[in-house]
Protein: ORC1-type DNA replication protein
Organism: Methanocalculus taiwanensis
Amino acid sequence: MTDEMNTSMGLFKKYLVNNKIFRNREILRHSYRPQTLPHRTPQIDSIAAVLAPSLHNETPSNILIYGKTGTGKTASVRYVGAELENAGGHLNTTCRVVHLNCEVIDTQYRVLAQIAKLVENVDAMSSDRTRTHIPMTGWPTDQVYAELKNILENSGGVLVIILDEIDKLVKKSGDETLYNLTRINSDLERSKVCIIGISNDLRFTDFLDPRVLSSLSEEEIVFPPYNAPQLVDILKQRADEAFVPGALHEGVIPLCAALAAQEHGDARRALDLLRVSGELADRESADAVTEKHVRWAQEKIETDSMVECISTLPTQSKVVLYAMLLLHRINQKIFTSGEVMRLYREVTRELSLETLTHRRVTDLISELNMLGVISTRVISRGRYGRTKEISFDVTTDRIWDVIMKDPRLVEHNISRFNEEQAGKLFR
């Protein structure tokens, strides 16, 4: 770096020189697609076998793919899709693959319009065909469906539609979209359509009409969680390209793998741990990443995800959580649902908010427990019945900050009811 560049870099100069840790940190991102996917060969071969008829211009079966987060479902399907398009090009067969994230594209109109747009984008690269512009809103859904059929007929060949997080689409918009897509082949002559649905939720099919389910799940493939040795292989593959040689202590990758294996074998979690560990080491100008950095990364990731989770909670859940925080701050480290309810009533009364029933508050407490914000256990009190003991498993300072910055609660001046008032109530 020249003297002139050193001067112009200013604040960022120290972050750009003498990088001892990373060679290319993007390789540790979820979006990066490696050339090979360790420990997913059986699943990849199964998907390829189902899609192989596409290369003969025949209609492949639809596939439902299940597995927990971070088990390689999306990466494997994208890999097979890219290989299919490449093989189709060599055989002079039209095979297209389009990928939709149903967490974002979650209505029938948007799904149909996006498929049409993606197909036309692919066609535009290989021909001068006039493109049809379908607006993202405004047309009757029947018109969008008809236009999609026209586009597919003009294109010919086989189209593979990947619906990632398909359960989100079904829960938001019902199964009408899938009903239409699974039957579109009966309306086509020159083109064929195959659907691949990817889901983390094995129970989402409970929401489907039996006719839709039978059409959609012609083939089912389950992705099992990775175990710790498999995660070690995945991390080593990425680390060889992502880090400067010698930048990782020997125990870093096994520790990241072991911690992620406890989280249902989540490869994304393992990659996040490794990347954040490297970033923490880089920021403190360490010579190498150590197990200490992995422990810090685990704490940081858990805290950050917890903060994001809490910030999106409904107002009433935040008020219930605030009541628990007050109990915690007046040194009641373990408290009962009855005590939470008693304080919750006082908080809502003071802030002029609606007071929910005891049963509804109990439901909100259970939801907070499922999210990992609190820990609960039911204890028996003999003839006095059973009650729920509650405590915090995590540090509460960040949770407190999120609650105190909530715009609606700030508007109600939540700090008006603080530890002093809570202390008087339980004196």
Notes: Strands lie at 63-66, 95-101, 157-164, 191-199, 219-222, 335-336, 375-380, 386-391. Residues 15 and 40 are 37 Å apart (CA to CA).
